Amino acid sequence: MAIRVKEGISKRFPVLESPRLRLRKITEEDCKDLYQYMTNPLVRRNTSFEPQTMLFPARLFRYFRACYESLENLHFAIELKKSNKMIGVCSLQYWDQLKGKAMLGYLLSPACWRQGYATEAARSLITFGFETLELDRIEARCAGDNPASERVLQKCGMKYVKAIPIRSRERGNVETAQKLYAVNREEIAK
């Protein structure tokens, strides 16, 4: 069944709709704005994108195009329905069909923070992950000092699992902690 799901996605990338948002395939035009969001210091300190993927918008688009070919990472542009403006990205990364799990990630333009967009996009992607991809577990990480992102994960039904020590280049190569959250399919079905 999972192979058919992957074949279907490779033929036609899904478009997900929520009350205010449309989640769709990232285009080359999106990468100019996305590059600006990702390189913003307020955003960059809380993301795990490797710097070499962000050297310039065209390289960023090549990264996303390669992801669409391999389908290991499913990246969706977050677009406001009312204006068709792309405001960020929401992803299911490290999609492991055999283990039935993936890692949720998201980032938004700082101009769109604290408006519920991250929660709305993440909920849509979690539903898609369980219902369409037939995942059993979705995990997410956030910086230990990012309470806004932590609230997004909690509002999506995710539970704190543990702290994970990491070395952060963006924070002066010091050891810091990320918080691991997760939700299982049966927890959402309740």
UniProtKB/TrEMBL annotation:
Annotated keywords: Transferase
Taxonomic path: Bacteria, Bacillati, Bacillota, Bacilli, Bacillales
UniProt protein name: N-acetyltransferase
Entry-linked InterPro entries: Acyl_CoA_acyltransferase, GNAT_dom, N-acetyltransferase
Keyword Transferase among UniProt keywords: yes
Pfam family, one: Acetyltransf_3
Domain N-acetyltransferase: 21-181
GO terms assigned for molecular function: acyltransferase activity, transferring groups other than amino-acyl groups
SUPFAM superfamilies: Acyl-CoA N-acyltransferases (Nat) (SSF55729)
